[in-house]
Amino acid sequence: MDDDEETPLGELARGFKNRTLVTAKLAAKLGSRYLKASVGMKGKTDAKAVRTAEELVREMGRLKGLVMKFGQIASYMPGAMSPEAQAMLAKLQSQSTPMVAELVARQVETELGSPPEELFESFETKPFAAASIGQVHRARFEGREVAVKVQYPGIEELVESDLDTVGLLARLSAVGTAIDGKAVARELRARLIEECDYRIEARSQRLFAELWRRDSARRVPEVVDARSTKRVLTSELSQGQGFHAFARSATTELRDRTGVILFDTCFSTLFGHAVYNADPHPGNYLVHEDGAVTFLDYGCVRWFEPAMIDVWKRVALSVLDEKKDEFREAYIELGLGTRGKFDWDHQWKIMLYLYRPFMQKEPFTYTNEYVRESYELLLLKNPNRMRTGLPPEWLFLNRLQWGLNAVLAELRATGPWPEIWRRAVESKTEPVPRGGQQVGKQAR
């Protein structure tokens, strides 16, 4: 955090007219970097890219909202920029220009009825983490160390403004493709507006804590209900090593163990309960000495229809068993392929790339090179690019899968992926109701 760059409410609102320009600038610069990386221009120090990243971090950290989220996603996707510039962009995963202390106190009092000094035994006015929707403060409540997430005043209006712009762009860019731009825009709006309501996040956090309560390798901070509202969320303070520091310093054995936990947690929960947290960025993980992981931030949780999950399982099994005809029918039923003009040979090539970790006989290690390979197959040289559908639920599933692959690549994780993947796709789906009123069989 920069002490001299605290942001009052007026400054948070400032820049409405500049937001579209900043978003376009980010997309153009990072898009160019992705394209260069995909044809081999990677790994070199680029002073201009570092300066660009520094500028974008400063600007996006000020503007918050969806603009900052774009930067967070780019920060952990290999190939966006040179390693030095990407490290600069990674600051967006836990840092942004903070609110002034008076504004924090006012927001807490508005939500909880009293100022922080009366509600907590201690409350640090300087945040230790900040992101696109709110910032997090250390405090003490009833003898426990807690983390108090305070939402930026007016952020919901900022997000609405961003969504108006991005929704229009989504509809326009979908013209002439197999994508329903309006449906995708509605999905984006629904998820991000939910993220602005910490009551929904608290329910999701409690749900995942219950789902994983029998597994000590997966940890979820306890919600402090007495100090949580729509715009303030208090949880127990979790201690652990930040993901990037862990990836740099941990032994191969520990990195592999953590990678397996992340992978298994994602897909056993997704296929087993038709729900998952769709925000896999590294700032949401704390790693412990034994390789166990604390999962943070449950603002972007997506529930899925069990019927859709069952079709996805059929797609997965048809690829694993190399049954092309069954794959084709299930892929169309999933809403991603079409019965018209469609290059099924190229799509099969894509599936063999995506399933390489699950079908390779030799132990597979996730690498940045593996992630970069997808840019050409799925984007640059994909003849089905304009013909591939995007059902609304796949907007965040794509984010989840690409993001998870990038996280595993940073860990350079090797694991029994075929065993974990097959067990997940062959599991029985026992969905939990939206909001987590009930929890079925424990995820393992």
Name the descriptors:
444 residues, 19 helices, disordered C terminus, 3 domains, five-stranded antiparallel sheet, four-stranded mixed sheet, disordered N terminus, alpha+beta
What do you see in this structure?
- Strand 9 (285-287) and strand 10 (293-295) form a beta hairpin.
- The chain is an alpha+beta fold and 444 residues long.
- Residues 1-5, 7-21, 27-45 and 436-444 have low confidence and may be disordered.
- Strands 1, 2, 3, 4 and 6 form a 5-stranded antiparallel beta sheet that branches. The chain has a 4-stranded mixed beta sheet with strand order 5-10-9-7. Strands 8-11 form a two-stranded antiparallel sheet.
- It contains 19 helices and 13 strands.
- The chain has helices spanning 9-13, 19-38, 47-63, 65-75, 83-89, 101-112, 116-119, 155-173, 181-195, 198-211, 243-249, 252-273, 306-320, 324-334, 344-354, 356-359, 368-380, 393-411, 417-425, and strands at residues 122-123, 129-130, 134-141, 144-151, 218-219, 232-236, 241-242, 275-277, 285-287, 293-295, 301-303, 364-365, 414-415.
- Helices cover 53% and strands 10% of the residues.
- It has 3 domains: 3-93, no CATH class; 155-193; 240-444, no CATH class.
- Helix 8 (155-173) runs antiparallel to helix 9 (181-195).
Care to give the gist of this entry?
By secondary structure, the chain is of the alpha+beta class. It has 19 helices and 13 strands.
Which structural class best describes the helix and strand composition?
alpha+beta
Structural domains: how many: 3
Number of helices: 19
- Work out the radius of gyration: 22 Å
What is the tally of beta strands? 13
What number is the mean pLDDT? 82
Low-confidence stretches: 1-5, 7-21, 27-45, 436-444
- Distance N terminus to C terminus? 38 Å
> Which term fits the overall shape?
globular
The helix content is 40-55%
Largest sheet: 5 strands, antiparallel
Beta fraction: 5-15%
